[in-house]
Amino acid sequence: ARTWEWTDECQVAFDRLKRVVTDESVLALPCYKKSFEVETDASDFAIGGVLMQDGHPIAFESWKLSDVERRYTVQEKEMTAVVHCLRTWRHYLLGSKFVVRTDNIATSYFQTATKRMKKWADKKRRHVEYSVGDFVLVKLHNILRHKDVHKGLTRRYEGPFQVLQRDKQDPSRAESSRAPIGAKAAYDQDDEQILADRVVRKRWCKPKREYLIQWKGLPENEASWEPAEDLWQFTKQIKAFYAEDATRASPE
């Protein structure tokens, strides 16, 4: 058997290691002119990280994983640690340069793949000016937000629509000859008068405006409340109703 030789150099290294482990770390104050370093790690039961600058720790963070998070894959645990630390130290990192370091190699490819996707997307991106008569696709969320349907279940674009005329300096804006996207009803009757309006409020839902419509050729007791998003055919009548209401409310 070979005898272990404990030299003075070994003793100095042991004393230094013992002092580092037992002493409390002194946190440095952040300097927002310098770059931050975010080092994260994850185990089977917890995640943790340290915010550093020039090799000096600024803040520590740890979090115990829940029963669901413990069933994550290794890559998912590492990404959970990165997201958690970035959220915790966002008041330090927003507006400053920072580098994220992790010991998991697979996680580092997420950023590389994102850069490659952006590179290919930028190659296909080009500036387009529309002319009268062109057919274009329109984003749905710019026209009407679907309140009862998750955005993942709706189409991103609708069309094609034909550009009828130029609108000032923006050639992509023009009046469409079709109904707004998401209109749920179309009425084959003409309205005689809009009698009143109201706002319907329900728990966990956004307020919805409705109008009491007096239909032409029908008695007054058959007037019905209709939602505002379905009355795309009666835009002029609604404007006239508000104008008349403002006239009645104004002092003589």
From TrEMBL:
Give the superkingdom in one word: Eukaryota
Compositional bias, Basic and acidic residues, is annotated for 165-176
The record, for CDD domains, names: CD_CSD, RNase_HI_RT_Ty3
One family from Pfam that matches here is RT_RNaseH_2
PANTHER family named in the record: POL PROTEIN (PTHR33064), REVERSE TRANSCRIPTASE_RETROTRANSPOSON-DERIVED PROTEIN RNASE H-LIKE DOMAIN-CONTAINING PROTEIN (PTHR33064:SF40)
Task: Show where the Chromo domain sits.
Answer: 189-252
- Gene3D superfamilies named in the record: 2.40.50.40, 3.10.20.370
> Which species is this UniProt entry from?
Punica granatum
Region ranges (Disordered):
165-185
Query: How is this protein named in the record?
Result: Chromo domain-containing protein
